[in-house]
Amino acid sequence: MEQSRPHVGLFIPCYVDQFYPQVGIATLEILEKLNCNVSYPLDQTCCGQPLANSGYERETKESCQQFLNSFLQFDYVVAPTGSCVHHIKERYSKILNAPELQPSLNSKIFELTEFLLDILKVELQGTFRHKVGYHASCHALRGLRLSKSSEVNTAPFDKVKSLFGKVEGLEWSQLQRNDECCGFGGTFSVKEEAISLSMGTDRLTDHYEAGTEILTATDMSCLMHLKGLADKKQSTLPIMHLAEIINQIIS
Amino acid sequence: MSHSKASTDFLRNAEHAKWHDETLWMIREKRDLASQKVPEWENLRTIASSIKEHVLSNLDHLLLEFEANATKNGIQVHWAKDAQEHNQIVLDILKKQSCAQVVKSKSILTEECHLNPFLEKNGIEVIDTDLGERIVQFLHQPPSHIVLPAIHLKKRDISELFHQKLQTEKGNEDPYYLTQAARTHLREKFLKAKVAITGVNFGIAETGEFVVCTNEGNADMGVHLADVHIACMGIEKLIPRRNDLGVFLRLLARSATGQAITNYTSHFRGPEKGKQIHLILVDNGRTEQLGREKFRNSLKCIRCGACMNTCPIYRRSGGFSYQSTVPGPIGSILSPGLDLKKYSSLPFASTLCGSCTDVCPVKINIHEQLYEWRQEITKANPNHAESLSMKLASGIFKSPLAYRISGILMRKLIKNLPDSLIYNPWNVWGKGRKLPETPQESFRNWYLNHRKNEQ
Hints:
The structure holds two protein chains of two kinds.
Chain A: E1 7-10, H1 14-19, H2 21-33, E2 37-39, H3 49-56, H4 61-71, E3 76-79, H5 83-95, H6 102-108, E4 109-111, H7 112-119, E5 126-127, E6 131-135, H8 138-143, H9 159-163, E7 167-168, E8 171-172, H10 188-191, H11 193-210, E9 214-217, H12 220-232, H13 242-249
Parallel strand pairs in A: 1-2, 1-3, 3-4, 5-7, 6-8, 6-9
Helix pairs in contact in A: 2-13, 11-12
Chain B: H1 3-12, H2 14-36, H3 41-57, H4 59-72, E1 76-80, H5 83-96, E2 101-104, H6 108-112, H7 115-121, E3 125-128, H8 131-138, H9 155-166, H10 175-192, E4 195-198, E5 202-204, E6 209-214, H11 218-225, E7 228-234, E8 238-239, H12 242-257, E9 264-268, E10 276-282, H13 286-290, H14 306-310, H15 312-317, H16 328-338, H17 355-359, H18 366-380, H19 384-398, H20 400-416, H21 419-422, H22 428-432, H23 443-450
Parallel strand pairs in B: 1-10, 2-3, 2-4, 4-7, 5-8, 7-10
Antiparallel strand pairs in B: 5-6, 6-9
Helix pairs in contact in B: 2-12, 3-12, 9-10, 16-18, 19-20
């Protein structure tokens, strides 16, 4: 390993791998542009969260081990998702009954924007002339604490938005409800279909009313749900994952 | 009925559902404003949580200390191991007083024990004196929210109900007018009642006193006019010292409704001369919950209802969709402990967004406990089809080769399936949402073509 060039293992969530390769490509290109030595381990699968959240955590021991085998060798593991990263950091050491893992999980594994801000100390320069609606994905917000949630009374901070502090032309949509869940929730989206659709519709309305031109988030899963809803209603809503926006800004 | 079925029914009346969501969100916003006025809010939450931690770890001797001090003050203390014992104790006291009509201020515990139907079966009329509770009682409904029992009803519903029950003017929806009518009606009941039942918000071990918080003063009105006061208290409602009370009082009303404090915070230490206070300490599954390591701190709950107001699912499905005495997120972690099978859909009625945990004044990790209950439920009530598909998925995720093959199949399948199959009634995703467009290749394939050769 070169001292100044961290060796980064790229973790691409299973559904991003299958449905949104452009998000994986953007993440890879960002890290390369920022002088990281990036590897994508070919034997990676899924973090196991869909099973665990459905109540079958006990069936995920081997996939957790598979993840660690693929990734623990790197200086850092970076992924364009708050949700999977949260699941790995929060639960793996408990699932595997291996508390000794926790320090490495804490210091190595990062959601993309947090990695850029806290580890690479990036301050984006460039332009992005759009009104952007930021959907605060719950697991990034209240799980990884990338920003202050509206419930708690601590000093405000927002890691994601502060990354864009010097980007010209970018305006954030002012929402009525800053951090209400979109209603995806994994299998919740089909188990509790009616509420899931109602929650998603309300989020979309909030963004339409705020004049959002492009909807973005740390997590493609929320965007998949919201975009799927908008498309079904035949209302246009361009979505871009944060990685795609960042990649465009630093190109 | 599962939660998802009940919530689907609730959402059919879209206009009402929207109103319900917005009304509860308004209360959540009031709570935000009130809590933001207290700079040490997060500290208070931590302290409250720690005090309750101490209580749960020392419940055995704190309860005995409480009993001894209360007895010294002249309070008659009873112990009830379950709802049945609790109800019987209440009935025995009422019988001894030859009391056929009793007034009761709000107590979720008595709802949990189904006290009203029990007493009614035994020929005793129960008058709920909290306005919201009286309204739902007229309708033979349970409360739909632990702080706002009639929040599912609109002014127009109440106007119509009062017209039928209290002979108010038809169509008069003026809240002041309707409240006055209820006051007059309840005043009559208060004056007649020989026995009054209340809940308990806090029992103080050090002094043997207990505290009841209300906004309407109905607990006080009932208790002071009656000869006998029966207070029903869950054993977890204890705090060690009177000094600790301020921490909880500052959190309770702000979290519940955004008020700085409830209008009435009444301390009951001992009976007036010639009168009686009976205090019933109720277990009803609490000791069992205390023994469940992952779920014990659900017993820290002070019943403020903030997790309901903040929950995007509760707001869009209403309290009745949970079909348990305590609805919403906290109910979904308490109820499975009482009956795992009956309440097995509740821990799944959540996206695990975590808002409940962040809003909770005593820092109960509600969404993490929802996750943990899911693990327990799939073990206890195996759903064979689901369990098989999970095993299949697990087999795929642990094997990189199987994962790749299934991914290729999935993309090919979605691309080539006719829309009629994707959007058929059995495909729940497709009913309200389009599927993502399937790309030509996965990221992995792209990587192999564009990067791997370079390395």
